[in-house]
Each structure stands twice: as structure tokens, then as C-alpha cells.
Amino acid sequence: MAGTRAALGFRAHSGWAAAVAVAGSPTAPAVIDRRRLEIADPEDGDAKQPYHAAEGLDLAEAERLVRRCTESSQRLARAAVGAMRAGLQASGHRVVGCGLLLGSGRALPDLHGILASHALIHTAEGQMFRDVLAEAGRHHDLPVLAVGERELMARCTADLGLSADQIARRLAELGRALGPPWRQDEKLATLAAWLALATR
To answer: pTM of the full predicted structure?
Structure first.
């Protein structure tokens, strides 16, 4: 299949994600797209924080609310990732995978246990939005490389064969070439995409 290889990278937040696409050489890729993906229904007041909205409801009603919001976010994530992939393909790129940043990896209890803890409510919401992005990648036949933020730099130095200083310099060069915004979101999403490109 022809086309320059490209990969996507995502860093999720409540209701949205920073998304970056890189392409070219796995040793020195270029950023070819960056955008904000909206993955919560703007017409649904509960969609950005469904577990917060479910707090205080009876369990059956809470389950319905969380399921409704998850399903709508899945549809939005599929559409957003699909649009990004289609745009890259139209410009001659072959998208080979995506990188997704993970949180702490803390195991979650059932919904009743989640709703009993405000800290777990935050954790569950973060996990939900990461899950819908992973599902969207798989829906579009993109292998998903998931890596914890705390392990990201160590994984990059090991897999890319570059030092942390070399990676930081390359990120700074990419940021200067692109111009703002070049925040932590874009930098980390770029590293996730870079890893996905290098490991495919």
C-alpha cells in the first residue's frame, strides 16, 4: 500500500482530547496535523462528567446515565478519529496506528464503588474518555499502543534509541516549526504518536 507512514497520538481530558499526527521517518518524524477532538455531546449537560452527574442517583438510573454518555462519546470519538484518518489518507498518508496516553492504571471497582468515592469518580471519567478513544482506533482498524504518562519518556528512550535530551530538542524543534499552541498536551500526544509510528 503506497503512502508515507503516519500515526496518531491522543491525550484525553474530560470531554475532549488533544490529537496529533506525525509522519515520515521514525527517527525524525514531522507533525502533520494537530487538533482538538470533541468527544462529549455538547447538547448533553452530563456528557463531560457523567460519573459526577450519576452521583446521588439510584444505581439503575446511574447505570443508564453513564451508558448513555459512554455510547454518545463512542460515536463522537469514532467520527473524530475517522475524519482525522480520512484527511491524512486524502493527503497521501497511510495511517499505521495510534498512541494513547494512559493515567495511573488504578483498577476501578463496580459502579457502586466508583460513586462512593469522589477520587474514583474522577479516575473513572478519565478512563472512560481514554477507553472511547481506544475503541475508536480499533473501530478504524488502527492498532492502539497504550502507554502510561509516567512511563512515556523511558519508553521513548528505549524504543526510539534516543536520549531524553535528544527527544526534548526534537520536540522543541517541532514546536518552533509549527508555532503555538505547543503545550504539554501537544508534546505528549506527539510522543505517543511517534512511539506508535516507530513500533509499527
So the answer is: 0.95
Amino acid making up residue 106: R
68-110 pLDDT, tens digit each: 999 999 999 999 999 999 999 999 999 999 999 998 777 899 9
Cα separation, 10 vs 65, in Å, equals 25
Other Cβ atoms less than 10 A from the Cβ of 136: the count is: 30
Q: Cα–Cα distances in Å, from 99 out to 22, 61, 68, 73, 112? A: 11, 34, 26, 19, 31
> Would you list the domain boundaries of the chain?
4-199
* SS3 call for 47: coil
Query: CB of 13 within 8 A of CB of 186?
Result: no
What distance lies between CA 115 and its chain's CA centroid?
Answer: 25
The terminus-to-terminus CA distance of the chain in angstroms comes to 14
Find the DSSP H helices in the chain.
50-54, 59-90, 111-115, 118-139, 152-160, 164-178, 184-199
The domain made up of 4-199 has a fold known as Nucleotidyltransferase; domain 5 (3.30.420)
